[in-house]
Amino acid sequence: MLSSRTGEQARSLHASLRSLFRALKRERVIFRDPARGVSVACTVNVPRRIPSDRLVGLLDKAPTAMAKVVGLVAIHALGPQEIRHQFLTGLDRPAGHLVVRRRCGDHVVHLDELTMKLLSDWLRERAERWPRSTNPHLIVTQVTAVDPNGPPVSEDGLRLIFRRLGIQPRTLRIDRLLDEAHETADPVHLMRVFGISDTTALKYVRAAHPHRFGPEPTQA
């Protein structure tokens, strides 16, 4: 019965059987759990790159300076939640870096010339449109800029920017990580540049260089 199923169906059935047999064992209906030694392999999802034709002119398609914040994802692989909650104080333009707060510790993003220009253009536009805004966040909208509570831009607001460009931020971030992994087979380099964990870095290096590492291992 279990061998005829794969994927999520197999995992769900396996969990149900284990729960049933444990209950029967507690009631002394059976004395051995026949599903105890059975494992179900689940395939690890391998990251995939975005077709190059979808990336051509991505920043040029962004209609406003604020929309060009996609560069923080496309170039530095920041997550959408990190962009939403990024504070202005984290940006040090003279030093050329952006400090991103994370639960595991701050990550310092060393900004390239293009990203610095995109951010400078946005900050100039922001100052012109809302010169009295006290919102502490890097990214604001016409709603959040004048809100005295200083909230971050909404998830829907940020999602709309990417939707208009025909791409999802998570997909764009994956592509950036894979692109860097293609250039180097060093997971430590990915950890330093993007502030990701060793497990995540190794996953991307394996996906980028399958001929060196073989297929992604399965998990029981």
Could you please describe the fold and organization of this structure?
With 220 residues, the protein is mainly alpha-helical. The protein has helices at 7-26, 52-55, 58-61, 70-74, 80-84, 113-129, 155-164, 169-183, 187-194, 198-208, 210-213, and strands at 91-92, 97-100, 107-110. A 3-stranded antiparallel sheet has the order 1-2-3, with no helix packed on it. Helix 8 packs across helix 10 (198-208) and helix 9 (187-194) crosses helix 10. The longest helix has 20 residues, at 7-26.
Task: Please provide a brief summary of the model.
Helices cover 47% and strands 5% of the residues. It is mainly alpha-helical and 220 residues long. Helix 8 crosses helix 10.
Question: Which terms would index this structure?
Answer:
220 residues; mainly alpha; three-stranded antiparallel sheet; 11 helices; 47% helix; 5% strand
Walk me through the topology:
Elements (H helix, E strand, L loop, with lengths): L6 H20 L25 H4 L2 H4 L8 H5 L5 H5 L6 E2 L4 E4 L6 E4 L2 H17 L25 H10 L4 H15 L3 H8 L3 H11 L1 H4 L7
Antiparallel strand pairs: 1-2, 2-3
Helix pairs in contact: 8-10, 9-10
